[in-house]
């Protein structure tokens, strides 16, 4: 076999089929772009807002002595307390939410991370103002729960 006589492919050899079908490629790109735009234009807009809340360990309930540092368990318990139907019902009443407390609860995420003393409250709404209002109302409810539990 003589390898010297076989032609080496050039860039033009690869571009030729693409250039001969350039209008088909342009139409396919335009149709795909328009389809994606139409799909996302029909979806409702969702805004997100969040706020971190510092969780201070209440200390020993018997002696009242402050703990040297907050535990992950305490922070997780606080997050679980915030993500409850009772808290959602209270928040819904205070912000005059037009849906049910279960619907409001589905719009909220309350998370904590290991090694941190913060609970992150994230809310979704139909506007930025609504999302911020929900997240801030949850934060205020947290403060009132903590202050209420420490005064008893």
- Principal-axes geometry comes out as elongated
Q: Percent of residues in beta strands? A: 5-15%
Mean pLDDT: 82
- Spans where pLDDT lies below 50 across 5 or more residues: none
Give the biggest sheet: 3 strands, antiparallel
Question: How many individual helices?
Answer: 6
Rg over alpha carbons: 29 Å
How do the strands line up in the largest sheet? 1-3-2
Order of helices and strands: HHEHHHEEH
- The chain-level structural class is alpha+beta
The helical percent reads: 40-55%
The total of beta strands comes to 3
Q: How far is the N terminus from the C terminus? A: 96 Å
How would the blueprint of this fold be written?
Layout (H helix, E strand, L loop, with lengths): L10 H10 L1 H21 L4 E8 L17 H11 L2 H11 L5 H6 L1 E5 L5 E8 L2 H24 L1
Antiparallel strand pairs: 1-3, 2-3
